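Summary of Year 1 activities. Much of the first year was spent building the evaluation harness for sequence design. The harness presents a backbone, in tokenized form, and records the residue chosen at every position. We chose the following record to illustrate the format because it has been used consistently in internal testing since the harness was completed.
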């Protein structure tokens, strides 16, 4: 595989808390190299596509110690130690369309100055999974025309979903007996009555009766705002024929920033409940990488972040003059001294 520069390296000309490459071309494989110079409480944390939501998880080991893990965090945390130290690191990254983005990183910091002290090392793996989900769904709420006709995820001002662009929304559903007609997955404005977007609809007679099953609505895209209601709506049916939407009453997702609201003639908030949901964002590949210092010390002049891509085209001229071209594929050849030919493995 041939490696070539991807994006414009960011070399600091002054003290700053971030280094950014914002013009990456989305590729399947990338290598990110960084060197940060000592300044205050220096730390190295990586974010992709300017996403600072809790969509990262990692496993790491410092200086050969036992593994530790973090989940649902706002960045991949790369620093071997925190302090006024010179740090060098490398991140190998895969960015396959439709898959979670995976990274392997290795970092070293100088430790104490001089050759009498060994440097510190860190091995770390992480993933970037811009899928927002609360799949815990032990209970259900009944939706029909005689009682509740809408049940929604309501977004408070500090909801993690505010500002997220959704390309699909999934809820877990079952039908009760034999409802007919159409249900909708809609986003209502903060006034609770204006429809901002419709992600899709479903013939309720096609919903299973058991077990609770994930149904996905993916028409268009919408960027969620504070006060929005992400709503499952069904106005058909009756007390004996309807749809159950699955929820969790232990409030596991995002505290009271994101919660359930139900509608009959007016909206009623249930701030201790969450709907079982999954929301996906656009999968454009990684087009931006940030190295951020969240400890307030800043990176000094000369700190650098660079990127390479492995999706380049490569031409190889073999000993007999044959020219091979490689694109996104590793190719190996073996030379036969007897036949004086190359054979692709």
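For this record, the design step produced the sequence shown next.
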């Amino acid at each position: 595989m041939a490696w070539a520069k991807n994006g414009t390296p960011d070399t600091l000309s002054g003290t700053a808390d971030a280094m950014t490459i914002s013009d990456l071309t989305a590729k399947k494989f990338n290598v990110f190299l960084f060197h940060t110079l000592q300044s205050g409480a220096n730390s190295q944390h990586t974010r992709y596509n300017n996403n600072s939501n809790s969509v990262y998880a990692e496993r790491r080991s410092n200086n050969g110690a036992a593994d530790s893990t973090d989940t649902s965090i706002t960045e991949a945390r790369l620093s071997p130690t925190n302090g006024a130290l010179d740090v060098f690191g490398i991140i190998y990254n895969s960015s396959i369309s439709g898959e979670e983005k995976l990274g392997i990183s290795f970092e070293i910091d100088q430790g104490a100055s001089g050759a009498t002290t060994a440097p510190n090392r860190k091995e770390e793996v992480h993933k970037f999974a811009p899928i927002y989900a609360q799949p815990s769904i032990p209970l259900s709420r009944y939706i029909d025309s005689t009682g509740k006709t809408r049940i929604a995820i309501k977004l408070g001002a500090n909801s993690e979903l505010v500002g997220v662009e959704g390309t699909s929304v999934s809820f877990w559903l079952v039908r009760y007996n034999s409802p007919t007609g159409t249900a909708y997955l809609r986003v209502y404005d903060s006034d609770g009555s204006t429809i901002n977007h419709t992600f899709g609809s479903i013939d309720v007679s096609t919903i299973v009766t058991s077990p609770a099953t994930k149904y996905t609505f993916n028409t268009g895209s919408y960027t969620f705002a504070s006060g929005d209601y992400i709503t499952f709506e069904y106005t058909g049916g009756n007390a004996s024929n309807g749809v159950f939407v699955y929820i969790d009453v232990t409030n596991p997702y995002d505290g009271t920033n994101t919660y359930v609201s139900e509608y009959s003639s007016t909206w009623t908030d249930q701030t201790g409940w969450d709907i079982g949901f999954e929301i996906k964002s656009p999968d454009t590949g990684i087009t931006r990488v940030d190295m951020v210092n969240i400890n307030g010390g800043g990176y000094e002049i000369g700190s650098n972040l660079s990127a390479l891509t492995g999706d380049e085209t490569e031409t190889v001229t073999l000993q007999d003059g044959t020219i091979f071209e490689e694109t996104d594929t590793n190719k190996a050849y073996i030379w036969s001294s007897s036949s004086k030919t190359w054979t692709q493995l």
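Confidence is low (pLDDT under 50) at residues 325-331. Quantitative recovery figures across the full test set are reported in Table 2.
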